[in-house]
Amino acid sequence: MNVIALLSVGIGLGLWALMVGLVPPRAPLSALISRLSATPASSPLLIAEQGGWAVRIGRPFTGVLRALGVPTVRVRQDLAVVGRSLETHLAEKAALAATGLLLPGGMALVLSLGGRALPWVVPLGASLALAVVGFVLPDVTARAEAERRRASFRHALSAYLNLVHILLAGGAGLEGALADAAEVGQGWSFQQLRRALNTARLTRTSPWSTLGQLGEELHVGELTELAAALALAGTEGAKVRASLAAKAAALRSRDAAEAEGLANAATERMALPGMLMAFGFVIFVFYPALIQINASL
């Protein structure tokens, strides 16, 4: 009965996926008209990478997930930061969910063939739980990686502002200082800054506009504010050296506060194993005495 139930569930899911793939949902007329009349958007500065085996397995289900409104806007921003395409992310979600859904059924089938059949509730509950975990896991990993990259970018932006301030104090122009400071640093953050400035140079646009676009794509408000300040300096002739120094100091203070908070949180987590060991030691010492007292009563 367990094998029949699992096979029925698998056949039903396969038929549903086949019907959705053959007859995809149609877009509404308003969306098509707005797509035709919309102005072309600027090409993104962040480059998305392609995935591996999970993408090949889950690619047929990406259209279904996209029709269901997956993922959310926040997850899309995180994917742009980590450099992962939307198709790759949806394919990974579908592949991991399908793997979690079918793995307990396969294990139950193997056990039943070996004469150790499990109740049907156990593989069914495990399949649902693993499917949910596999479906949510790519979102969680993308958000954690995006937060780490944003924190690293803020740290690099503070150093970048210091370099720009030094070059401006040495008599360099604003655009030259921005380009020269970006060439000095290494790592992912400075690569994004150099790509934005090179895009501005090749498209003959202002560098602060591309830096503002990069800040919006990364969802880093400090870079967007920097682009606004640079735009004032480039168009209105405002003095930007003092503003850059103030922003760099604010970023350093924020980084120091975040580092202190992380250190305090790590210290608190380190105290928990010691408390558990002390509690276990107390139980180990007093347990024989409690047994003797209960036996004497």
Question: Overview of this structure, please?
Answer:
The model has no long low-confidence stretch (mean pLDDT 80). This protein is an all-alpha fold and 297 residues long. The chain contains 12 helices and no strands. The two termini are 53 Å apart. Helix 7 runs antiparallel to helix 12, helix 8 (174-184) packs antiparallel against helix 9 (188-203) and helix 10 (207-218) runs antiparallel to helix 11. The longest helix has 56 residues, at 241-296. It folds into 2 domains: 2-21 and 48-146, no CATH class; 151-252.
Give the overall shape: flat
Helices and strands, in N-to-C order? HHHHHHHHHHHH
List the uncertain runs: none
Report the biggest beta sheet as strand number plus sense, adding barrel if it closes: none
Q: Which structural category fits the helices and strands?
A: mainly alpha
- Overall mean pLDDT stands at 80
Question: Which percent range describes the beta-strand content?
Answer: under 5%
Rg, Cα atoms, Å:
28 Å
Count of the separate structural domains: 2
Helical content stands at over 70%
- Report the total helices: 12
End-to-end CA span: 53 Å
Total beta strand runs: 0
